[in-house]
Amino acid sequence: MSTALVRTERHGEGGHVAEIVLDRPEAMNAVSTQMAHALGRATKELSEDPTVRAVVVSSTHPKAFCVGADLKERNYFTDEELRAQRPLARAAYRGVLDLPVPVVAAVDGYALGGGFEIALSCDLVVCGDSAVVGLPEVSVGVIPGGGGTQLLTRRVGWSRAARMVFTAERFSAADAHALGAVDEVVPAGTARDRALELATTIARHSPVGVRNAKAAMRLGFDTDLDAGLQIEDERWAATAFSADRAEGVAAFNEKRPPVWPGR
């Protein structure tokens, strides 16, 4: 499937790995109103597709994953136009965050502001070693509004997130990895290959199991332990009595690769 500014591609046997490709290279993937709409549409379609087992988010620009909101477009916005754009922008970032399968960001080059927030909305972030990340919004009179104040704090803790947000500094891939803001650093230009490798590994496993594991982790993260364990138990039951569980156990005992029913 293709849309203006955002493309989706499928990989591997069965096409179980989907790739969302940010494709506005002339603007280094700055998120315009149209691009936000396209990203929201792409994530909605993938979230409703039961054949998808893992997703990679990548860029066609070798020097930029995404540089954030399109400030050239916003320069001419009235307050009313900015308010009207807000639901589209929120839906775009939330669409990545709410994908029911694991999502891997492949970051090469700049991932700034909303671009870094797209990456933070993913479950895993792979960076090329020349990548530069940051949340510089306070330097232009706004705050991170694509989930950054919440997602970064949950990833790295209050004080580290405070430094990144309040100073508006840019961080190298190595420094971001040391802070815990990204998960893996690979040679420049290879982040997409590594992200696809991780997604392919994930896609080999039970789709019912993986979806329920992600749901249990996400839903339980901000609760107390007892509530989290109850959520885990509910998701365990949703998996344990599935056709995938029966196939997984049979395949293990028969010493063969499983053929997942996905239900």
UniProtKB/TrEMBL annotation:
<keyword id="KW-0456">Lyase</keyword>
<protein>
    <submittedName>
        <fullName>Enoyl-CoA hydratase-related protein</fullName>
    </submittedName>
</protein>
<dbReference type="InterPro" id="IPR029045">
    <property type="entry name" value="ClpP/crotonase-like_dom_sf"/>
</dbReference>
<dbReference type="InterPro" id="IPR001753">
    <property type="entry name" value="Enoyl-CoA_hydra/iso"/>
</dbReference>
<comment type="similarity">
    <text>Belongs to the enoyl-CoA hydratase/isomerase family.</text>
</comment>
<dbReference type="Pfam" id="PF00378">
    <property type="entry name" value="ECH_1"/>
</dbReference>
<dbReference type="InterPro" id="IPR014748">
    <property type="entry name" value="Enoyl-CoA_hydra_C"/>
</dbReference>
<keyword id="KW-0443">Lipid metabolism</keyword>
<dbReference type="InterPro" id="IPR018376">
    <property type="entry name" value="Enoyl-CoA_hyd/isom_CS"/>
</dbReference>
